[in-house]
């Protein structure tokens, strides 16, 4: 303990330097204690006054005792302050004495040691006494501080209450005089005052403007074609420039009037070749043409008629026109139309789709003579894959005299990565042939800037004609085709519709559908979809129905299920069948021998199937273009047709949003009650058992 006391109170030089500050603090404490003592004396005097007024016990002794007590209370704080100063000085002296005693000789007497121990024991006792006094003083100061805070709070609350009372009195006085101004004043008081703080990130909501795409002029200002076919038919004789031989052909086929697309596009193509197919109008390169029109609007005839008319005067057989189509069935359909109008003209049309062997197709295209190879085709209708094979592998096959390049279903040709095929066609068309003579006169090179040297030799121009019901509006994709000053003929434009109150609204549409088409969707569950199809066929007596699925496996299973159910003549159409089987089923369906044709998207694009009354989307399409091409198989050439879509309840919101984004809003909801499906359940369960057996047998046959 002695060492602790020495180190704490007397051993540090820093404490000596802080002695002056300690004295100042002691003086402040003395003044505070004196004030507290005076306050206590005043309280005691106030309490003692009524006792003195009572009178009888007042005397000299009590008064003398009180004076002594007052003197003692005044002397106590003075004595405590003196004691503190002495305590701060005593440790220093004791430490000096102890240091001197330790430096002295070790032969100290025991009496001296006893005295030193007594002094050391007195020091901690004095320190403990002073510490306890300091603690009591700190507690008193804290209590005084808390009491002062409470007093301030009480004063503030009292002031607030007085203000409220004054405001209420004023409000009552104002109400007695004027009621309306008082209401306004109360509302103003209820509103908080405007703050001067600026809220970061706060902004007023503004209506978001739609971003208008910047399109080239030919896309932004196209040639508009009427949508309504029946109301805008043009007689064949009113279209200028058609050859009389072709007019007879049209009359023989029962065509007395042109559709709006045909009436606009046929004169445009004929005008670009008015000086013959060897040169463009005025010696310039003709403009390319793009056509976007709904399904069944007559796009095929709009390029067949002018091409046949331009090639009527040809002398040497060369490949002048090339039609590229995505599917074999569509290529067969287009080749049939060409054969009808080239019959008796001497023009030769060759179909290249891979249905025949490669050697037979080579014999149809090229013939080898003593002077070299000569072409046997004026018009070629082909699919992309087979065409590229002949460009690379067939000797003597040349496209250097190609005048028209027709790309039907152009959007699919771009999206399905057939762009390489188109590039190869253009490269083959401008390929330099080895040889000399008269052929060098019309040798053409890649088009470039017009100069004096390039204009010295006439060149056969290559004109591109693009057709589609869902032609893309993306300039980046269209730029890949390297179109030359293109012209766009489109029936996709916004129409003004009058509402019930007489207001007109513009309805923006990205795609157009046939005029006579009515659209419905049926919300359903996955298990009830086959029952709904049978309900349409048996209960509602649908006939000549084209049903679409998303895969060939789904179409095959649905075909087996309906076949096992019975009572419906059904057939399937997919890549599982050979080309000959496809042709046979298509003929039987057109003849009415088949009531229900279950197909994949192989028949969705471009194929003109006569007499389709209903289209059923058994599987909801994932893309809007697929939907448009599917439902476009009915209501063709201005006729009426109905399209049903079986949509799962999970897909309903997405399906409707897809149609809304495309501008298709006239789709009706057609729910089917479960009671109407109950008569079919028992026979349907038996058909499921049969289906299971047939699927097992087919798997066993594949393994074998």
TrEMBL record:
Catalytic reaction annotation: ATP + H2O = ADP + phosphate + H(+)
Domain (Helicase C-terminal) ranges: 532-678
Keywords per UniProt: ATP-binding, Helicase, Hydrolase, Nucleotide-binding, RNA-binding
Keyword Transmembrane helix: no
UniProt GO MF annotations: ATP binding; hydrolase activity; RNA binding; RNA helicase activity
Sequence ranges assigned to domain Helicase ATP-binding in this UniProt record: 280-489
Ranges of biased composition (kind: Basic residues): 111-122
Recorded superkingdom: Eukaryota
Pfam family, one: DEAD
SUPFAM superfamilies, sorted: P-loop containing nucleoside triphosphate hydrolases
Enzyme Commission number, as recorded: 3.6.4.13
Bias kind Basic and acidic residues: ranges: 10-23, 71-101, 123-140, 160-181
Spans annotated as Disordered: 1-23, 36-200
Protein purpose: ATP-binding RNA helicase involved in the biogenesis of 60S ribosomal subunits. RNA helicase.
PANTHER family: RNA HELICASE
Family: Belongs to the DEAD box helicase family. DDX51/DBP6 subfamily.
Domain notes: The Q motif is unique to and characteristic of the DEAD box family of RNA helicases and controls ATP binding and hydrolysis.
Protein name: ATP-dependent RNA helicase
Lineage of source species: Eukaryota, Metazoa, Chordata, Craniata, Vertebrata
Gene that this polypeptide is encoded by: DDX51
């Amino acid at each position: 303990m002695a060492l602790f006391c020495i180190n704490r109170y007397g051993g540090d030089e820093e404490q000596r330097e802080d002695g002056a500050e300690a004295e100042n603090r002691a003086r402040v404490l003395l003044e505070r204690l004196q004030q507290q003592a005076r306050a206590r004396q005043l309280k005691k005097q106030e309490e003692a006054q009524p006792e003195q007024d009572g009178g009888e016990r007042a005397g000299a002794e009590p008064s003398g005792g009180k004076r002594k007590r007052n003197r003692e209370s005044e002397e106590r704080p003075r004595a405590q302050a003196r004691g503190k100063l002495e305590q701060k000085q005593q440790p220093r002296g004791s430490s000096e004495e102890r240091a001197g005693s330790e430096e002295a000789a070790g032969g100290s007497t025991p009496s001296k040691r006893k005295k030193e121990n007594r002094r050391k024991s007195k020091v901690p006792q004095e320190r403990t006494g002073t510490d306890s006094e300091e603690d009591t003083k700190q507690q008193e100061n804290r209590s005084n501080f808390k009491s002062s805070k409470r007093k301030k709070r009480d004063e503030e609350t009292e002031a607030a209450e007085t203000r409220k009372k004054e405001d209420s009195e004023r409000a009552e006085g104002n109400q007695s005089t004027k009621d309306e101004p008082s209401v306004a004043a109360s509302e103003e008081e209820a509103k908080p005052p405007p703050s001067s703080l600026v809220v970061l990130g706060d902004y007023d909501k503004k209506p978001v403007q739609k971003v208008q795409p910047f399109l080239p002029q030919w896309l932004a200002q196209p040639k508009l074609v009427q949508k309504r076919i029946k109301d805008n038919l043009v007689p064949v004789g009113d279209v200028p420039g058609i050859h009389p031989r072709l007019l007879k052909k049209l009359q023989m086929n029962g065509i007395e009037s042109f559709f709006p697309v045909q009436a606009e596009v046929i004169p445009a193509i004929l005008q670009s070749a008015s000086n013959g197919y060897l040169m463009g109008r005025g010696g310039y390169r003709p403009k390319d043409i793009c056509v976007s029109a709904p399904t069944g609007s007559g796009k095929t005839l709009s390029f067949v008629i002018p091409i046949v008319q331009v090639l009527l005067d040809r002398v040497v057989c060369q490949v002048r026109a090339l039609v590229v189509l995505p599917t074999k069935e569509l290529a067969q359909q287009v080749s049939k139309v060409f054969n009808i109008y080239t019959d008796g003209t001497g023009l030769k049309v060759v179909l290249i789709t891979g249905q025949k062997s490669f050697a037979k197709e080579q014999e149809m295209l090229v013939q080898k003579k003593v002077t070299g190879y000569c072409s046997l085709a004026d018009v070629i209708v082909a699919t992309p894959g087979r065409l590229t094979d002949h460009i690379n592998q067939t000797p003597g096959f040349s496209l250097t005299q190609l005048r028209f390049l027709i790309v039907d279903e152009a959007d699919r040709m771009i999206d399905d990565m057939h762009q390489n095929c188109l590039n190869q066609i253009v490269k083959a068309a401008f390929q330099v042939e080895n040889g000399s003579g008269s052929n060098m006169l019309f040798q053409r090179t890649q088009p470039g800037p017009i100069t004096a040297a390039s204009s010295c030799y006439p060149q056969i121009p290559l004109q591109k004609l693009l057709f589609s019901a869902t032609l893309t509006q993306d300039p980046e994709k269209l730029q890949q085709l390297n179109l030359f000053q293109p012209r766009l003929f489109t029936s996709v434009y916004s129409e003004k519709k009058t509402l019930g109150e007489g207001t007109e609204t513009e309805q923006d549409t990205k795609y157009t559908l046939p005029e006579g088409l009515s659209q419905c969707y049926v919300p359903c569950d996955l298990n009830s979809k086959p029952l709904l199809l049978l309900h349409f066929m048996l209960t509602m007596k649908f006939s000549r129905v084209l049903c679409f699925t998303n895969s060939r496996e789904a179409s095959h299973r649905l075909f087996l299920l309906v076949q096992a159910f019975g009572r419906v003549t059904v057939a399937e159409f997919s890549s599982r069948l050979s080309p000959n089987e496809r042709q046979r089923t298509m003929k039987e369906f057109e003849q009415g021998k088949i009531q229900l044709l279950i197909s994949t998207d192989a028949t969705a694009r471009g194929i003109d199937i006569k007499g389709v009354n209903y289209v059923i989307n058994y599987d909801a399409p994932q893309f809007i273009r697929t939907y448009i091409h599917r439902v476009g198989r009915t209501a063709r050439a201005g006729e009426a047709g109905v399209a049903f879509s079986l949509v799962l309840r999970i897909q309903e919101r997405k399906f409707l949003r897809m149609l809304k984004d495309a501008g298709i809003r006239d789709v009706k909801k057609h729910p089917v009650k479960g009671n109407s499906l109950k008569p079919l359940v028992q026979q349907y369960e038996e058909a499921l058992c049969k289906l299971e057996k047939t699927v097992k047998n087919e798997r066993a046959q594949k393994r074998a």
